[in-house]
Design goal:
The chain is mainly alpha-helical. Helix content is about 65%, strand content about 5%. Strands 1-2 form a two-stranded antiparallel ribbon. The chain starts with a helix and ends with a strand.
Length: about 150
């Protein structure tokens, strides 16, 4: 009976190993398919596209532009817009900055976010969204990743 149990345990171990290998192959195939879909949609996406590719973790520049248009005039708008977007994307990518509470919700009481909200208002929501996307889609690194 002990020999039968040992043989059964060995068979289950073999089945488990085969399933682990199959899972790894399937995961690899899914990642390849995902990458190809993103490449394809990048080529196809345009103004009227229903499905597109978004880089998760990149700050939405529209609120920054809106604030800059309200606060600056002429050539300063473009320059200030570019500088602010660049500065906040740098902050978002900084892995030392972690404005999340324990339940992985962005902490509205974070000093940088409070200062941003006070200075630029609704722009803070664009930064919070980018941070949440990074935390959901790429928590191990602070760089944006493409997603359909």
């Amino acid at each position: 009976m002990l020999e039968e149990e040992r043989c059964e345990l060995e068979q289950l171990g073999d089945i488990n190993s085969a399933l682990i290998i199959k899972e790894r192959q399937s995961t690899y195939e899914l990642q390849e398919a995902h990458t190809e879909l993103i490449k394809g949609f990048r080529d196809l996406s345009g103004e009227g596209s229903v499905i597109g590719v978004k880089r998760m973790g990149e700050v939405d520049e529209k609120p920054f532009l809106k604030v800059c248009e309200q606060r600056f005039n002429g050539e300063n708008v473009g320059l200030q817009h570019a500088m602010l977007c660049s500065e906040w994307q740098k902050n978002i990518n900084d892995s030392a900055w972690h404005p999340f509470k324990l339940v992985e919700v962005v902490d509205d009481e974070d000093d940088k976010l409070k200062k941003l909200s006070k200075e630029l208002g609704d722009v803070m929501n664009a930064v919070k969204t980018a941070l949440e996307e990074l935390n959901d889609f790429n928590p191990s690194g602070r760089y944006s990743v493409p997603a359909l």
